[in-house]
Amino acid sequence: MERDANARPMTVHLVNPSHLSFGVGVITPRWLFVLAAATPSTHGRPQITDETLEPLELDVVQPGDVVGIGIHTGNALRGYEIGTQARARGATVVFGGIHATLYPEEAHERGGAHAVVRGDGDVVWPLVLDHAVAGTLQRTYEGGRVDADSFLPARWELLPEGRYMWGSVQTVRGCPKHCSFCSVWRTDGQKPRQRGVDGVIAEIVELRQHGFRFVALADDNFYPVTLADLAMAERQKNADRLEQLQTLRAERFELMERLAQLPSDMVFFTQITMEAAEDEAFLDAMRRANIKGALVGVEAVTPEGLKDVYKSFNDVGEALVLRLRKFRDHGVHVLGSFIFGLPSDRPSTFAATADIAERAGVTFAQFVMLTPYPGTVDFEGWEKRLGEGAKKVSGIPVTRHWLIPQADRPKVYTPHPVMTPDEIRAGTQAVWDRFYSLRRIWERSRCTPNLRARLAFVLISKLYRQMYANTGIATDSARVNRANRWARLIAKPCRRLFVARPLPALASTTADA
Ligand code: B12
Ligand code: SF4
Asked: How far apart are CA 139 and CA 137, in angstroms?
C-alpha cells in the first residue's frame, strides 16, 4: 500500500541490537553510519540507536517509520525482539547484516521482517526505502558484494557526542584464506576489495576532527597479499595475477604512507595474519603509519590444532613465539586470538597456550571457545553430524543456538572427544584469569612510557577482560551481572583515556607530500 502523502514524514531508524548496554562503546559499529550515508536526504535524518550504549526506547518508533536492524549471529535474537515490537507499532521492518544474509527466512519468521537485505547495503538501501514508501517492498533484496569503489564513507557527523573510544574505518573487505571457523571468505569473498586511499584518509581525518585519536581499521585481513603469493604468481609466470597483486600491495604502502602524515598522536589498530611477520618492509611501514596494534589469529599452538582449523600458514612452538615477537620488535602490539575446544585440544592445551601467549609477548589476548558460526565449514559439518538428533535447550536445537534465550544459552556447542563442555569453559576461564591477573597485567604494562600510561594500561586490560570474558564465558548470571556493572563503571573513565582535543581545522594528507 502506498503511503498517504499528507501523513507525517516517516523516520528511518537504524538499530544495532544488544542485550547488554555498557553506556559507553569501545568501537563505533560502522554499519550504522554507512547505512545512514546510504539513506537519501529525501528520507530525512536517520535516527541511530546503538544498544551497546543504551536500549532502544520503543516510543520513538511511530507507525509508518522504517526500522532497519543489522544483526550478526550473537545479537540476532535481540534483533528479532526489536523487529517484532517495531512491527507491532506499525513500522516497516527491514533486516540486514551477516546473519540476515545467511538466514533471511528466520528474520521473517521470528523478527517481524517486511523485507531482508542480503549482502552489502551500500547500493541497495535507497531502493529499499523507496519501495517502503511506495508500498512495493520485496521480501528479499540481494545487495551482493559491491565493488570497493562503491563502499560508502560513514556519516560520522551523526555520532553521538562522547560515547565511543575508537572510530572504525574499513580499508579492505574479504580475505583470501579459508579458515574453517570463519565465514568472512565465504560471505565477503576471497578477493580483497580494497578501498581507494583518498576515501579512507578523508574518513580518518574527519574522525580526528571530532576528537578521535584511536581508529580501528575494521578489516578482515590488512595483509591480503603475502610475499608467498607474489612468489607463486612469479613461479607460475602469471603476469596478470602478479600485476594485480603488486598493485594491491603498492596501495597498502601508499595508504600507510598517508597515515604516517596524520597527527602523530593517532593510533590505529587492525586485524592481520601472522604471515606479515615475514615482511619487514610491511611491518616498518605499519610502525611509521602508527598502526600500533593488530589482532592476530593465532587460534592454536599445536600442529594438530592448526590442521583442525585449516590454518597451516600459521606457526607453532618456538617459531610461533618468534613470529609474534617480530611484530612487537617492529612496534606493533599483538592482540593474540586463541580458540579453545578444538578436537585435538587436551586438558594440557590451556596452560600450554597461556605459556606461549606470555612468552610471545602479546600485549592483549582473547581466548574464545570454538563456536560453530553459520556460514562456516565447521558449522556445516557440525549441523550435518547432529542432524535431527541435535540436543534441545528451551525447545530449540543447539544447531540454532542463537535462538536460545540468552540466560539458558549454553557456552559450548561442539562435542569434544575427551573434554566435557564444563571442562572447556572452566579451562578457558582459568586462562583469562591467569593472563589478566593484576601481576601479569602490571608486568605487561612496562611497554608504556610513564606511570600514567601504565595505570591506563591496567584499566584498559581490566575493561577488556570484563567486557569480553566474563560476559561471554561465565554461566552463572551473578558473575555476568557483576562483570556488566563493572564494565559500565570503568568504561566511562576509560573513554577519557582515548579521546583527544578535536581538530576541526585538520586538513587531509596529500599523495605527494
Ligand atoms: C571490525 C569487526 C569487529 C570489531 C568491531 C565490532 C564493531 N563494534 O563494529 C571487534 C573486534 C570488536 C569484533 C568483535 C567480534 N566479532 Co567481529 N567483525 C568485524 C569485521 C571484521 C568488520 C565489521 C565492520 O565494521 N564491517 C563494515 C560494515 C560496513 O560492514 P557490515 O557490518 O557487514 O555491514 C554491511 C552489510 O552487512 C549490510 N548491513 C549490515 N547491517 C545492516 C542492516 C540493514 C537494515 C541493512 C539494509 C543492511 C545491513 O550493509 C552494510 C554496508 O554494506 C567483521 C567482518 C566483516 N567483514 O564485516 C567481523 C564479524 C562481524 N565479527 C564476527 C565475530 C564472530 C565477532 C565476535 C563474536 C568475535 C569473538 N569471538 O569475540 C565479536 C563479537 C562482538 C560483539 N558482541 O559484537 C563475525 C560474525 C559472524 C556471525 N555469523 O555473526 C564476522 C563476520 C567475522 C567472522 N570471522 O566471520 N568484530
Ligand atoms: S579467520 Fe582471518 S585469515 Fe582466516 S579466513 Fe577469516 S579473516 Fe581470513
From this structure: 7
Q: How far is CA 320 from the centre of its chain?
A: 24
Q: Which of these, 77, 67, 79, 87, lies nearest to 17 by C-alpha position?
A: 79
Q: Is the pLDDT of residue 224 over 60?
A: yes
- pTM here is 0.93
| Contact status, residue 422 vs residue 410, Cβ threshold 8 Å | no
The residues near 389 (Cβ < 8 Å, ≥ 6 apart) are none
Q: Rounded CA gap, 187 and 197, in Å?
A: 24
**Cα 487 off chain centre by:** 19
Task: Give the pLDDT mean for 216-228.
Answer: 96
C-alpha cell at 294: 593488530
Rounded to whole angstroms, the maximal C-alpha distance in the chain is 71
Distance 5 CA to ligand 1 centre (A): 37
pLDDT digit string (tens) for 66-96?
A: 999 999 999 999 999 999 999 999 999 999 9
Query: pLDDT tens digits for 147-188?
Result: 999 999 999 999 998 899 999 999 999 999 999 999 999 999
Cα–Cα distances in Å, from 134 out to 39, 69, 123, 164, 329? 16, 20, 18, 36, 59
Return the DSSP state at 264.
T
Asked whether 273 lines ligand 2 (CB < 6 A), one says yes
Separation of CA 229 from chain center: 26
pLDDT single digits (tens) 334-379: 999 999 999 999 999 999 999 999 999 999 999 999 999 999 999 9
Name which residue sits closest to atom 6 of ligand 2, judged by CA. Answer: 182
**31 in contact with ligand 1, CB cutoff 6 A:** yes
The answer to whether 435 and 415 are in contact (CB under 8 A) is no
Q: Where are the beta strands (DSSP E) in 17-129?
A: 25-27, 47-50, 66-70, 92-96, 115-119
Residue 291, all three cell numbers: 598502526
Q: How many CB atoms lie within 10 A of CB 302?
A: 20
Q: What pLDDT is stored for residue 433 in this prediction?
A: 93
How sure is the predictor about 470, in pLDDT bands with cuts at 50, 70 and 90? low
How many angstroms from the chain centroid is the CA of residue 209?
A: 24
Residue count of the chain: 513
Cβ–ligand 1 distance for 98 under 6 Å, the answer yes
Element (H, E) at 185: helix 184-187
Q: Is residue 246 a contact partner of residue 254, using CB atoms and an 8 Å limit?
A: no
pLDDT over 90, % of the chain: 83
The rounded distance, in Å, linking the Cα atoms of 398 and 394 is 10
